[in-house]
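Action item from last meeting closed. Structure (145 res):
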């Protein structure tokens, strides 16, 4: 049997959120669209900002599960613009425990210093920001080794 994967911290993104648009009920559950308005990126492998203009397509499904599909852009400190598509999901535990949101981000970066993002596998944890007056999420991204 192969050894379990090792997670190496890559970076953290503090992603600022705009207004939420309630789309309504769909066959899969309640949908909303949340604008991504900016943010910061910092970590051992990447520094930069979150560019405004992205979005997070949310599903509040049966049993309390939440699914996120986010698509947004980062701008690295060296000027490279990087597309991020992150699928994340969280479901409460059998006794209603608050779930941890875990995602699988995929990146498309230009060839060059940030090209390392184009290969390999990544996982991320997503937590809500602590200031209700300024909606945000904190995303910790790990490279799978």
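Sequence:
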């Amino acid at each position: 049997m192969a050894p379990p994967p090792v997670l190496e911290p890559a970076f953290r993104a503090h992603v600022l959120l705009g207004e939420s648009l309630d789309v309504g009920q769909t066959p899969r559950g309640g949908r909303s669209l949340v604008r991504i308005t900016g943010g910061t990126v910092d970590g051992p492998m990447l520094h930069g900002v979150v560019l405004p203009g992205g979005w997070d397509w949310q599903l509040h499904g049966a049993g309390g599960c939440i699914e996120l599909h986010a698509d947004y852009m980062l701008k690295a400190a060296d000027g490279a613009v990087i597309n991020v598509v992150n699928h994340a999901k969280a479901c409460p535990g059998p006794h209603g425990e608050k779930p941890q949101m875990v995602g699988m981000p995929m990146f498309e970066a230009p060839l060059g210093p940030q090209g390392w993002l184009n290969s390999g596998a990544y996982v991320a944890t997503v937590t809500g920001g602590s200031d209700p007056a300024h909606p945000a999420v904190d995303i910790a991204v790990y490279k799978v080794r």
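Note appended to the action item: The first strand starts at residue 7 and ends at 26.
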